[in-house]
Amino acid sequence: MRRHTMIKKFGLFAVLTLLSLGSLIACGKLGNVDQGRVVEFDEEKGLVTLIRDFKADPKNPDYTHLPPYTYEMPKDPSEIGALPKAGKRMKLDTEKKQIVIFDTATQDFKTLDYSLISQAEKISGDDPQVYDQEADKPKTFPMIDRGKKTITVYSARQKILTTFSLPDEYFALPDDTWDSGDEVRIYYKEEGKARRFMNLSKTDIFKK
Fold first, then answer.
1. CA distance 65 to 52
2. What's the whole-number mean pLDDT along residues 158-172?
3. Domains of the chain, CATH where assigned
4. pTM over 0.85
């Protein structure tokens, strides 16, 4: 089973490693790092399930590795960042007009062809189409209209706002089917037990 070590530099974690290296050395040998998108989170049981991203390229992630992997959250609350949001949307391919979802029933991916209704590109997070200026907070996506049979999703990474339609049968699925889960990074020494948990989707390490 493939693993990344703390000493390997990739993406944002190169910075995070430098910030925490001293404390990790003090604990003994370095541990390992895992990264992926959250598809399930059980806060009561303290379990988080990911689809791993071995590529670790923020602009071009690779959520194609099965089976999903479950970790126990750290026992120490101070080692836990923002709690994750789970979602089953793995990829939005606007060129092929396809959406890839993780199907919990089969524990596999499904690629669905959709009918495009509308699409807006280069949509930043503060754009009025995705940000409620009056309430001063992001709008909630996905927006699902079961009457009109439309689904609207926003990809912050791609900066794309897309509304599409699918066959009726897919509107019976849970709303989080069409949402992207948070990208998280886990430091561990023992298989399946996280020692540190960072929610990359909700962390700004450059914020003062």
1. 6
2. 96
3. 4-86+181-202 (2.40.50.320), 89-178 (no CATH)
4. no
